[in-house]
Amino acid sequence: MSLPKATELPIGAVVTEPGSTRRYSTAGWRTLKPVIHDDRCVRCQLCWLYCPEGTIAEVRGVFKVGGKTYDVKYEIIYDHCKGCGICANECPTKAIEMVPEAP
């Protein structure tokens, strides 16, 4: 495969292999991991939207949480999460907590 020269790239272009994060486990980089507290989650999708690695999965179904019923919940794919904390920082209800990774 031949890569383009820097002058041939559009502004902001990234030349990497698409989907590489999903193919390889990068969990070993983490010192903190995000934990989603479903009872505080308002399903705003900000964690899913801002995750730079796409490691937050939107799961469809019927979920009962604290007397309320939701049709979606969010789960973290820990094999690919690097523990950057962007999801926790962007969560408006602080439903995501960064906790120390177990040794």
UniProtKB/TrEMBL annotation:
Keyword Signal: no
UniProt keyword annotation of Mitochondrion present: no
InterPro entries assigned to the protein according to its UniProt record, in alphabetical order: 4Fe4S_Fe-S-bd (IPR017896), 4Fe4S_Fe_S_CS (IPR017900), PorD_KorD (IPR011898)
GO molecular function: 4 iron, 4 sulfur cluster binding; metal ion binding; oxidoreductase activity, acting on the aldehyde or oxo group of donors, iron-sulfur protein as acceptor
Taxonomic superkingdom: Archaea
The name this protein goes by in its record: Pyruvate ferredoxin oxidoreductase delta subunit (PorD)
Cofactor(s), names only, from the UniProt record: [4Fe-4S] cluster
Keyword set, alphabetical order: 4Fe-4S, Electron transport, Iron, Iron-sulfur, Metal-binding, Pyruvate, Repeat, Transport
Annotated 4Fe-4S ferredoxin-type domain residues: 32-61, 72-101
